[in-house]
Amino acid sequence: MELIQRPRRLRSGDPIRRMCRETRLSASSLIYPIFVDETLKGKRPIDSLPGQYQYGLDTVEEAVAECIEAGVGSCILFGIPAHKDALGSSAWDPNGVVQEAVRTIKAAYPDFYVITDVCMCEYTDHGHCGALCGHEVDNDATLELLSKVALSHARAGADMVAPSDMMDGRVAAIRAALDAEGFQNTPIMAYSAKYASAFYGPFRSAAGSAPAFGDRKGYQMDPHNRKEALKECALDAAEGADILMVKPALSYLDVIRECSDAFDLPMAAYSVSGEYAMIKAAAQAGLVDEYRIMCESALSIFRAGANILITYYAKELAQAIQKGDIG
Questions:
Q1: Whole-prediction pTM value?
Q2: How far apart are alpha carbons 86 and 89 in whole angstroms?
Q3: pLDDT in tens, 280-298
Q4: Which of 255, 261, 311, 324 has the most beta carbons within 10 angstroms of its beta carbon?
């Protein structure tokens, strides 16, 4: 048979397959989530996230050391405070759990890149992402609180802040607050298209952030909507976001692709707790090859257009990249 085009020529061996890869991964694009519990000494396994831990302030350096050893150079911090109240005031306490964790990490590893999650849900006694008016989150009142949180993180030494609350106008409010205090060079990674997803369950257990009543559908996005993600990304870009994000990742690959194509900003994706837990559970049941599924899932997210991936598999993926199994 006379065939001019034979795509299999470029699949004939490992060297040529690697040479012709369209999508390439780098460990520098991976961010590892770290949970820090103000009341904890040592570290505690997270039952809902096998292989993951909550760390005390006395062990958070250990979590970072493991990242560095694996080749991961950045983390995103989530705090679990000793005190919760209606406004989540511990979130902007200069000596709060995230602020202390940032200082601890930076003292030991000054070049390690520390991103902080800016939200209220772990800090409020009702578990919602802002100040309440009745049973509804008061959007505009919450903006002032989020700005205070972001400023306190920047003062503590955070390299980047990442608002995850989904309040309208929060990027503009945080940008103005940072700039007014001389933090013009502190980037904002906005959780731009954060969906009201069922995939967050294990995280809420890990962070102690489940709402005491109702749900978050009034401020997080409806999973039915695609065009709305473009609107949210456009608003965040116009308000000064430096990086946009889609969350979750695997069920929203179409959204990642469309937003990545539409905006000339780096695109992050968060492979969330439910995605990680499902792979772990399927692997434990002997149904899938965990290592290959981990690699293939991450690859799909980058192929969809992400430049940055927040993932509980960051350390394992970095090692897979080093070994040449992915990347």
A1: 0.95
A2: 8
A3: 999 999 999 999 999 999 9
A4: 255
